[in-house]
Amino acid sequence: MVRLSPAAAAVPPHDTATFSVVARDANSDTIEGALVSLFESGNLNIANGGSTTALTASDGSGSISLSAASGFGRASVCVAGVELCQVLIRTPDINRSAQPTVMCLVGTGASSVAGADITNPMCGFLVNFGSTTPGVNDHCDLDCSGAVNGFDINGPSGVIQYFGDIGTLGPFNTCP
C-alpha cells in the first residue's frame, strides 16, 4: 500500500512508489522502446505531474514513479499495453470537492486535503470509524491498523500531516 497526497510538488515529498521493470517477449528476449506507464482503477486519480512514464532501454529495463494522487483505488503498471502489477493507493483526500456534503467526486479539477475529508457526513474519516471492512471503509485506514481511528487523522501518516496539500487531477490514464 502507498499513501499519497494530491500535491505533486509537496515539500517535503510524501510517499513515492518506484517501479522498475524489464520487458521481455515470449522468447525471453528484452524489448527496447516499450512504453512503461501507470493507470488508475477505483476512485483514484493521479495528479498532474504525479507520475512518470518511460521507454525501456536496450536491455529492456525501465523505471517509473508515482508521487501524487487523490481518492483511493489501485494503480497498475502497464508495459507495452500489458498490465504487470497493481499497488493499493490510499490518500487522505477522499472528499475531493469544495462542497462539504458531496461524496468522493471522481474526475479532473482541483483537489486538496481539507477539513471535509474528516467531517464529510457521507464519506469522511469520522463516519468511517471502526474496524475495516474491505470495499466499505478500508480506504480510510491510512495507518494499516485494521481500523479507522484517530491515528488515521492525527497520526504520522494521518490527514493532518497532509493538510493543505493541493493538486490538479488529470484525466484517467489507460493501459494503451
In short:
This protein has 176 residues and is mainly beta.
Read across the widest sheet, the strand sequence of neighbours is: 1-7-6-3-4
The sequence of SSEs as H and E is EEEEEEEEHEEHHE
Query: Number of domains in the coordinates?
Result: 2
The total of helices stands at 3
| Class by alpha and beta content | mainly beta
**What's the alpha carbon Rg, rounded to whole Å?**
17 Å
- CATH architectural arrangement of the largest domain: Sandwich
Q: Helix coverage percent of residues?
A: under 10%
- Identify the CATH class of the largest domain: Mainly Beta
Query: Strand tally, please?
Result: 11
CATH fold category name of the largest domain: Immunoglobulin-like
Shape: elongated
How many angstroms separate the termini? 24 Å
The biggest sheet, with number of strands, parallel, antiparallel or mixed sense and barrel status, is: 5 strands, mixed
How would you characterize this protein structure?
There is one protein chain. Strand 6 and strand 7 form a beta hairpin. The model has no long low-confidence stretch (mean pLDDT 89). The protein has helices at 116-119, 151-154, 159-162; strands at residues 2-3, 17-22, 35-46, 54-55, 61-66, 69-79, 82-90, 109-112, 130-131, 147-148, 166-169. The protein is 7% helix and 34% strand. The strands form 4 sheets. Strands 1-7-6-3-4 form a 5-stranded mixed β-sheet, with no helix packed on it. The protein has a two-stranded antiparallel ribbon with strand order 2-5. By secondary structure, it is mainly β.
